[in-house]
Structure to design on (494 residues):
């Protein structure tokens, strides 16, 4: 049975727990709900499907299935042409790209994101509490892995809420930001200083890393191959604990800590950890090898997401319908399309006439729209044959470690390592007097398209201006208020 079939079979069971703990009145728990919850945590299978339900919730459109991967968060980063005006037929695109946070359509989408994130966090907290209370249902080493994943997911969700709704950390780390929820119930909580929230995020990651010491990814790798292609020792692993890149495994949690440290401007710590992860024997470089050009260019099986390098990604059930609705070249009105300006992409990929001339493998998933002034991204389009990249939304990839080290050590060599594995020459071979910060920024624009990391990079760096998403547009000035979408009013009114 392939991974996609397995996912389809667990959706109903996994969502049962989400439904029970995500009802409209979170403070009410009926006796029948309590009985059902107790039944869910009375068997290992139900515990597993409950955790799967949380991953599936993260893959919904409100979170990493769309808004925090390739739509709203990328509109904030100016990844797309922003439309022809407020009256066109995609007002969300226009208003978000122009940081017009007062418009109802923008308020609504950030409310959807906020609600989706915190309802997921409450489900995670419920899972942690219930699993902690169980005795003898799951073997201790497996229980540790399940709890480790849950703590890491809680940290992941809070970090993105802090990065999105929190202050520009490098200038306002003591400013009140969001609340850190650790209990499985809705209770009024005061918002906390950004620095306090970040400390709690790192505490949760450290808990996760301790619990994930027995993660089979450390000894057996990711284990995405079909049963007949697994080693003898890999076949002995419970199938639930395979496909480790579809879960927040030990290595993904470690890179998440690097990300959190970088957000907190703790670059020395981040650099030390990133370097240790890349230098660890039989660690990330071995477990998550570079994707080859043969894999990228394999006709009808193109791996545009470089899946072997992804430490953590989720199942995005609506990936292909969303691509059809937002990116399909069949959309005739450019104002309705999430298209990128060809002139901007040419700058990003260092070409003067055509993207097709770039040897960068990442340029392969860009194709010219009906109007040559725009290009459409095929990174998340459906391949002809079912492969390991189907419905796979990357959230953490190993190249992030190289960019972190390039920044922390002011060293082009780490950028060059990624460039070489993307089909490019080193920076020094093609540019004189290259600026490191500019090259890192260009790498983020090429590497993380549709993965929601570019806006957070801009915000962390507190860049005074960023590239305009419109063709030939002048740089956009980025005042502080543009970097900080307002927390939904209904949350502030409580």
């Amino acid at each position: 049975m392939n991974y996609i079939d397995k996912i389809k079979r667990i959706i109903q069971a996994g969502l049962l727990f989400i439904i029970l703990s995500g009802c409209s009145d979170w403070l009410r728990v009926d006796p029948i709900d309590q009985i059902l919850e107790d039944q869910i945590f009375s068997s290992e299978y139900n515990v597993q499907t409950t955790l799967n339900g949380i991953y599936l919730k993260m893959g919904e459109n409100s979170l990493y299935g769309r808004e925090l991967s390739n739509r709203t968060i990328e509109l904030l980063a100016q990844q797309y042409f922003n439309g022809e005006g407020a009256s066109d037929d995609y007002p969300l695109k226009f208003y978000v790209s122009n940081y017009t946070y007062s418009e109802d359509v923008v308020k609504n989408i950030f409310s959807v994101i906020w609600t989706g994130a915190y309802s997921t966090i409450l489900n995670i907290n419920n899972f942690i509490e219930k699993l902690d209370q169980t005795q003898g249902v799951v073997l201790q080493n497996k229980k540790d892995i399940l709890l480790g994943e849950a703590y890491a997911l809680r940290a992941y969700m809070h970090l993105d809420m802090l990065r999105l709704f929190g202050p520009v950390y490098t200038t306002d780390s003591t400013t009140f930001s969001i609340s850190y929820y650790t209990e499985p119930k809705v209770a009024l909580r005061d918002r906390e200083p950004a620095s306090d929230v970040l400390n709690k995020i790192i505490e949760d990651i450290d808990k996760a890393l301790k619990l994930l010491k027995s993660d089979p990814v450390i000894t057996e790798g990711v284990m995405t191959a079909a049963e007949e292609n697994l080693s003898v020792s890999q076949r002995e692993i419970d199938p639930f604990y395979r496909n480790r890149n579809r879960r927040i495994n030990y290595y993904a949690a470690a890179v998440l800590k690097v990300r959190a440290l970088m957000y907190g401007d703790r670059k020395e710590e981040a650099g030390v950890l990133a370097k240790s992860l890349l230098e660890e024997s039989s660690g990330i470089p071995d477990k998550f090898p570079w994707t080859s050009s043969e894999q990228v260019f394999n006709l009808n099986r193109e791996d545009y997401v470089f899946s072997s390098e992804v430490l953590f990604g989720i199942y995005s059930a609506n990936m292909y319908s969303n691509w059809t609705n937002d990116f399909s070249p069949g959309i005739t009105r450019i104002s309705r399309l999430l298209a990128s300006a060809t002139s901007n992409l040419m700058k990003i990929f260092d070409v003067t006439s055509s993207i097709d001339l770039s040897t960068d493998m990442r340029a392969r998933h860009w194709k010219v729209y009906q109007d040559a002034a725009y290009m459409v991204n095929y990174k998340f389009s459906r391949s002809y044959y079912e492969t390991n990249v189907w419905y796979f939304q990357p959230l953490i990839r190993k190249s992030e470690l190289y960019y972190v080290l390039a920044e922390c050590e002011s060293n082009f060599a780490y950028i060059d390592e990624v460039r070489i594995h993307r089909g490019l020459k080193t920076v020094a071979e093609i540019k004189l007097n290259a600026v490191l910060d500019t090259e890192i920024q260009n790498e983020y624009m090429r590497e993380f398209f549709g993965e929601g990391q570019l806006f957070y990079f801009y915000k962390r760096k507190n860049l005074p201006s960023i590239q305009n998403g419109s063709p030939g547009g002048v740089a956009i000035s980025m005042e502080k208020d543009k970097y900080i979408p307002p927390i939904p009013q209904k949350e502030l009114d409580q």
DSSP finds 23 helices and seven strands in the chain.
